[in-house]
Amino acid sequence: MNDISPPLEELHPNERLKHDSDQLRGTLREGLADPVTGAVTDDDTQLTKFHGIYQQDDRELRSERRKQKLEPFYQFMVRLRLPGGVCTTTQWLMLDGLARQYANATLRLTTRQTFQFHGVLKRNLKAHVQGINAALLDTMAACGDVNRNVIATANPLRSPVHRQVYDLANRISAHLRPRSRAYFEIFLDEERVAGGEPEEPDYGRTYLPRKFKIALAVPPDNDVDVFAHDLGFIAITEADDLLGFNVTVGGGMGMTHGEPKTFPRLADVIGFCRVEQVIDVAEQMMCVQRDFGDRKDRGHARFKYTIEDRGLDWCRAELERRLGYALAEPRAYRFETTADPNGWQKGIDGKWHFTLFIESGRVADRTDYPLMSGLREIAKAHKGDYALTTNQNLIIAGISKAQKPKIQSLLERYGMVGTRQQSALRRHSMACVALPTCGLAMAESERYLPALIDKLDTIMQEAGLADDPIVVRMTGCPNGCARPYLAEIGFVGKALGKYNVYLGASFEGDRMNRLFRENIGEAEIIDSLAPLIRDYARQRQAGERFGDFVIRVGAVKPMLAGREFQQPA
Ligand code: SRM
Ligand code: SF4
To answer: Is the fold of 343-422 the same as that of 425-564?
Structure first.
């Protein structure tokens, strides 16, 4: 049971807020019904997060509305809990309808394998969540100081092992979901049961010190970036049997510019557990962080800092004490890529899967590319699954041989294949949301990276590298939502039009990059990267990746440990 020791007064104010929230209820019910403002109270904005909902405002309208003496244009971002990232095509059609009815007519596929809606007004919020509920989906614990959406190597239809791992992601998610009925009462009009409810079994009244993230990877794919997570499980298989998992702890991407005590950190492998031990390990590891994570300083509250402060040996011993058994020694494994496959893949059961690259995960209808309509038509034709990837892409999964020509013709009709063949560089790129909705963005990301890729593509083509993948990721601030410190080329926003450029992560996702140039604009980005790309074309060794090349030629030093991550002043 969560029994935090120092008096609440000595802790971060959010601890008191959680403690006094009546298990995440606060005054949300009243706040949502208040027609005078488009916002909820400051305290309630913290609590909506635990229900998967963020209050935002359109940042581009701020000054105009201030001039007109209007409150900011408040709106809500709504994030689904979708462990393992699969929905049926029927569910997709329902979500598509909700996006057009209540949100900004787009669906946003995230780096954690789920959906976000943007631009939902307060007056529509309940109806929107009820629509999600009607699709048998929910937004519980998609944000907040809890275990977040559990991610897994994409597409459970790929093999029985993928299916097992997907099922485990769902079981972990269900097991670690808050038990409070607040969500049901606030959004789904459930009556509160008289006599109160028991305290959360794992979370207590103050939940976790900070968010907690779990990923499951099936080698050779490291699409989930398993080392970027608080807790990770790397599947160990033998002759297509799942034997268990190597357990990783202490990964995280977020940092703050100019604050050397904050840094991204790659997780360490601490042992091996059997399949039937996974839920137990996940629960106990989360509870270790619940009890030892920093509740005074939210900038130091992620599990990675608990581990840096106390050490890996301590972490493993504390876990094993709670489990009542020891983890086994880690087993051998090998990752080859963090990328998704491209286009058609034949599954082991003769079914087909089509991976569609979705630029920055944004599903929208643009005049030159009616992607949202196309995916709607495919969803109507394909009675199966859509599997989201942690690279913000979409897999149309489990297509029969007979149905394949129909899907292919729809892909062509809506311009998703053929003329829209994307370069390898673009297919390996990701950008976070950033402006105009993200309140923390310092620079553009999703709206800018495509144009920068156009320019880098020209250099790549001229160098004869049109088909060579380089992992490129951009974020609008150092929080790392697109995991930029694991990109061969990472851009991290510093100010409008200015980025820190990081180089030299591995293609397999097991080495972070290092600062290459600080606070530069587009012209300098191009000028500094073009010669390296050209040299890469001429001087690379057989099979050498760009991230390895830049280290070999001395453009940056290799990263060895999180603590060494280079923080500019
Ligand atoms: Fe994130 C906060 C978007 C994955 C690290 N993230 C935010 C917020 C909610 C901004 C806010 O707090 O006001 C962003 C909402 C923007 C918007 O308008 O939609 C936001 N994060 C995203 C998404 C949508 C990016 C995307 O382009 O897909 C991803 C949604 C994931 C999901 O479905 O659950 C997203 N965020 C990540 C990841 C990647 C991952 O988890 O694999 C990270 C780095 C990994 C990690 O947690 O260490 C990440 N987001 C953060 C942080 C920094 C946390 C830290 O330890 O310092 C923040 C800020 C915070 O928590 O204070 C943040
Ligand atoms: Fe917003 Fe920063 Fe995350 Fe981008 S990385 S979505 S700018 S918090």
So the answer is: no
Measured in angstroms, how far is the CA atom of residue 115 from the centroid of ligand 2?
A: 16
What is the CATH number assigned to the segment(s) 343-422?
3.90.480.10
Q: In angstroms, what CA-CA distances link 33 with 126, 182, 183, 260?
A: 10, 16, 15, 43
Instruction: Tell me what pLDDT residue 186 has.
Output: 97
**Residues 278 and 272: beta-carbon distance below 8 Å:** no
Ligand nearest to the CA of 173: 1
Question: Which pTM does this prediction carry?
Answer: 0.97
Ligand number with the minimum distance to the CA of 437: 1
Asked about 126 being catalytic, the answer comes back as: no
Ligand 1 pocket by C-beta < 6 Å: which residues? 54, 56, 77, 79, 110-112, 114, 116, 142, 148-149, 213, 228, 252-254, 302, 361, 392, 432-433, 437-440, 479-483
Average pLDDT over residues 295-302: 97
- pLDDT tens-place string over residues 312-368: 999 999 999 999 999 999 999 999 999 999 999 998 889 999 999 999 999 999 999
Q: Which CATH architecture has domain 425-564?
A: 2-Layer Sandwich (3.30)
Q: Residue 420 carries which DSSP code?
A: G
Residue ranges of the domains in the chain? 343-422, 425-564
Cβ burial 325-350 (10 Å sphere, 16+ → b, else e): eebeebbebebebbbbbbebbebeee
Q: Are 352 and 399 in contact (CB under 8 A)?
A: yes
- CA dist., res. 516 & res. 532, Å (int): 12
